C-alpha cells in the first residue's frame, strides 16, 4: 500500500525526532546523540527507536510530565523517616498525571 500524506502525518504524530526532542530538552541534537543512553539509564528517559533517531512521542510526553508531578524525597527510603503511605501517594499522583495527559476520566 503506498504511503499517502495523511498516513505519513499520522505516523509522524507517533514519534518525536532528534531535533524536536533536543529543543524540548534545551540541548543540541549532537549533545542528545551523545547523552541519550545516559539519560535513559539515570533519569528513565524512554529508549530511542532502534531504526533511527526518534522516540515514541507518548512515552516522552509521559516521562516529561511525570518528572514535574513527583518530587524526590531526600535521604534513603529505607531509613524509616518517610511515611509508609508515600509509595501509594506517588503511584496515585503518577496515575492522575497520566490520566490527565491521556484525557481519561475516572
Quick rundown:
With 106 residues, the chain is mainly alpha-helical.
Structure overview:
The chain is mainly alpha-helical. Helix content is 58%, strand content 6%. It is built from 5 helices and 2 strands. The protein has helices at 5-14, 18-24, 29-43, 57-69, 86-102; strands at 15-17, 54-56. It has a two-stranded antiparallel sheet with strand order 1-2. Helix 2 (18-24) packs across helix 3. The mean pLDDT is 80.
Helix count, DSSP H or I runs of 4 or more residues: 5
Radius of gyration: 17 Å
Whole-number average pLDDT?
Answer: 80
Helix content percent band:
55-70%
Task: Lay out the secondary structure.
Blueprint: H1 5-14, E1 15-17, H2 18-24, H3 29-43, E2 54-56, H4 57-69, H5 86-102
Antiparallel strand pairs: 1-2
Features:
106 residues, mainly alpha, single chain, two-stranded antiparallel sheet
